[in-house]
Specification:
The complex is a heterodimer of chains A (113) and B (112). With 113 residues, chain A is mostly beta strands. Chain A has no helices and 11 strands. Classes of the chains: A mainly beta (113), B mainly beta (112). The A-B interface holds A 1-2, 4, 6, 31, 33, 40-43, 45, 48, 50, 55-56, 88, 90, 92, 96-99, 101-107, 109 and B 2, 30-31, 33, 35, 40-45, 48, 88, 90, 92, 97-105.
């Protein structure tokens, strides 16, 4: 579909579990993003990485922990989540952070029980 | 408050008709982008219009930008059932941080 892949596509976890979401881009981009999309809410930017450095943390709770080991990979580590964290988590990449066109992955549908 | 807000929130039309969606924003921008999202999937970039452009075309898509009114419109001509999706505008913020701000989107349904 696009050059951005996300795994897993669906995830169900309990509030005490620890899990990780993975994103990989094959486009040679230098910026990667995590977004949260809940029903009837605008797309919420969570984190921005530009050249592996985190440049934006949009007041995200510490139970979400991002990791960007290189420009092609981005992880979102999850622990002690709440039911209200259930949402579609989208990863995106762009050539550089800012006004460039973003390319999105298919998303991970997360359900927290 | 939202940087970009789409209008209407939902639109239902018949196949073959044109669909028009609007986006209003609050601050000066470098560019405005339109994205499409099929249900439960990732967003797909449709078109980017720069602040010094007034109109842009791509296939059946026509985008206009009026910086004096801080608004943009997306027109889809001769709609097809496959155009059924949510459409989002996204704006950067001139002189602002390294991110795009997305609106809540317009949910378009094209009935066969």
């Amino acid at each position: 579909e696009t050059g951005v892949t996300q795994t897993p596509r669906h995830l169900v976890m309990g509030m005490t579990n620890k899990k990780s979401l993975k994103c990989e881009q094959h486009l040679g981009h230098n910026a990667m993003y995590w977004y949260k999309q809940s029903a009837k809410k605008p797309l919420e930017l969570m984190f921005v990485y530009n050249f592996k450095e985190q440049t934006e943390n949009n007041s995200v709770p510490s139970r979400f922990s991002p990791e960007c080991p290189n420009s092609s990979h981005l992880f979102l580590h999850l622990h002690t989540l709440q039911p209200e964290d259930s949402a579609l988590y989208l990863c995106a990449s762009s050539q550089v952070a800012g006004e460039d066109t973003q390319y999105f992955g298919p998303g991970t549908r997360l359900t927290v029980l | 408050s939202q940087q970009g807000e789409e209008d209407p929130q939902a639109l239902s039309i018949q196949e073959g008709e044109n669909a028009t969606m609007n986006c209003s924003y609050k601050t000066s921008i470098n560019n405005l982008q339109w994205y499409r999202q099929n249900s439960g999937r990732g967003l797909v970039h449709l078109i980017l219009i720069r602040s010094n452009e007034r109109e842009k075309h791509s296939g059946r898509l026509r985008v206009t930008l009026d910086t004096s009114k801080k608004s943009s419109s997306l027109l889809i001509t001769a709609s097809r059932a496959a155009d059924t999706a949510s459409y989002f505008c996204a704006t950067d913020v001139w002189g602002g941080s390294e991110k795009l701000v997305f609106g809540k989107g317009t949910k378009l349904t094209v009935n066969p």
